[in-house]
């Protein structure tokens, strides 16, 4: 049970606080998601391969699929905590992530595992999809995590005297 008194802040300060906390949380998650790729790169370099050998392996597509999946989880979690009136926006966001992120990353992964030799264009597509996965996870992750913090268990009291209920 949290026995600390709630903070008293303006709505803008509360939003900044939640977004900053969410940014740190998402960056921490992102670091642990790319950690296996860093280890694979270190092993590749120590075995005499190029630093860019990771682009040729399917691990990058697998990482992309994880990033897009985690983006979906953060979006759903944020909307679940904020309880929006309609389901249209979360459904659209999740469908967009699946159609333009998760499915292409899994298709590229399947192609990388089945085509030998791997075409250079497929390796480039894999790298671009991974970069899109990082951007997607960071963007949707920070927003969803901030919504979870704002509407979750952490209490921040908004100064109602300065901001009437209609503005909050």
Strand content: under 5%
Largest beta-sheet characterization: 2 strands, parallel
Number of domains: 1
Structural class: mainly alpha
Unreliable runs, pLDDT <50, ≥5 residues? none
The number of strands is 2
Distance between termini? 26 Å
Task: Give your account of this protein's structure.
This protein is mainly alpha-helical and 168 residues long. The chain has one domain (7-158). Helix content is 71%, strand content 4%. The protein contains 4 helices and 2 strands. It has helices at residues 11-46, 59-82, 88-114, 120-151; strands spanning 7-9, 156-158. A two-stranded parallel sheet has the order 1-2. Helix 3 (88-114) packs antiparallel against helix 4 (120-151). The longest helix is centred in the N-terminal third of the chain and has 36 residues, at 11-46. The radius of gyration is 20 Å and the shape is elongated. It starts with 6 loop residues before the first strand and ends in a 10-residue tail after the last strand. The model has no long low-confidence stretch (mean pLDDT 85).
Structural topology:
Blueprint: E1 7-9, H1 11-46, H2 59-82, H3 88-114, H4 120-151, E2 156-158
Parallel strand pairs: 1-2
Helix pairs in contact: 1-2, 1-4, 2-3, 2-4, 3-4
Output the keywords.
4 helices; mainly alpha; 71% helix; single chain; 2 strands; 168 residues
Could you provide a short overview of the structure?
It contains 4 helices and 2 strands. The chain is mainly alpha-helical and 168 residues long.
């Amino acid at each position: 049970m949290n026995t600390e008194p709630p903070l008293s802040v303006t709505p803008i300060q509360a939003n900044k606080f939640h977004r900053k906390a969410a940014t740190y949380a998402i960056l921490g998650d992102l670091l642990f998601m790319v950690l296996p790729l860093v280890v694979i790169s270190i092993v590749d370099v120590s075995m005499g391969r190029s630093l860019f050998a990771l682009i040729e392996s399917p691990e990058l597509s697998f990482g992309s699929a994880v990033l897009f999946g985690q983006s979906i989880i953060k979006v759903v979690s944020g909307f679940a905590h904020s309880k929006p009136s309609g389901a249209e926006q979360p459904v659209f966001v999740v469908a967009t992530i699946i159609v333009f992120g998760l499915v292409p990353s899994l298709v590229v992964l399947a192609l990388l595992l089945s085509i030998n030799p791997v075409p250079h264009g497929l390796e480039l597509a894999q790298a671009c999809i991974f970069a899109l996965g990082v951007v997607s996870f960071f963007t949707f992750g920070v927003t969803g995590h901030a919504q979870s913090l704002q509407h979750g268990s952490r209490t921040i009291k908004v100064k109602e005297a300065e901001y009437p209920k209609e503005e909050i």
